[in-house]
Amino acid sequence: MVFKPDVTVAAVIERDARFLLVEERIRGRLVFNQPAGHLEDRESLINAVVREVLEETAWRFTPQWLLGVYQWRSSRGHSTVRFAFSGTVSDFAANRMLDPPVIATHWLTQAEIASRTASLRTPLVLRCIEDYLRGVRLPLEALLSVQ
Question: pTM of the full predicted structure?
Answer without folding.
Answer: 0.94
